[in-house]
Amino acid sequence: MEFYKYINPSKYVLYFYINIQELKLYGKITIFFDVTEKINKIFINSKELFVSKLLVNEKEHKYVMNDKEETILVEKEFDKGEHKIYIEYTHCIKVDMDGLYYVKKDNSIIFSTQLEPIYARKVFPCFDEPKFKTKFNITIESDKNKTFLSNMP
Hints:
The protein has strands spanning 7-19, 24-35, 39-45, 50-56, 59-60, 64-66, 71-78, 81-92, 99-105, 108-114, 135-141. The protein is mainly beta.
């Protein structure tokens, strides 16, 4: 998409609450990004996520979900400079081995991720393009006595 050459995501701040009984992810994300030339819309990748709230620069904003294109369209003039988008959403965790998925073993359930290109959009709204290398700050919560591991420094 043409507008991708005018944006550069700089940081993602993610909060995940994993409800093990419901097999649901309740997520909140703030995407910080720079715009190098004025643009009038952006597309954020999203697949199988149910968005309940979207703010642009701390103001509630309309958006259009396009399941076929796997995007959230935000039509707004973005001037040159720093911007942020905040999104609240839910996701049903499945056994598909992409995005965030689960495996049952004995009496346990194990959650794992597969975030190679085009699968991150199944866990959180993002600019899911390999050219964007971005820093992440992730907080994960769930039931007590659960362990979460990450291989990201």
